[in-house]
Design a protein that fits this description.
This protein starts with 12 loop residues before the first strand and ends with a strand. It has 71 residues and is mostly beta strands. It is built from no helices and 5 strands. Helix content is 0%, strand content 48%.
Length: 71
């Protein structure tokens, strides 16, 4: 399980374990917090294609789906 600090999530780098559409490397481009400091939404941007995807930020904790950094 990847350990993630929500406050340091913005601009973090991620590698998809199973790339789709040749998209493997991603940056967290946008994070939205509520009044209590909890993450509401997380947007990933593919480095190669610049496509953006809204995901549940807790999915990044799964090492079966995501690796921290660019590998």
């Amino acid at each position: 399980m990847n350990r993630i600090n929500p406050a340091k999530l913005h601009h973090s780098k991620w590698t998809a374990v199973k790339p789709m559409n040749r998209e493997k490397h991603f940056l967290v481009s946008e994070i939205e917090f509520d009044e209590e400091g909890s993450v509401i939404s997380c947007k990933l941007e593919a480095v190669l294609s610049k496509n953006e995807y809204l995901i549940d930020w807790t999915e990044l904790k799964s090492q079966e789906q995501w690796l921290q950094g660019w590998k």
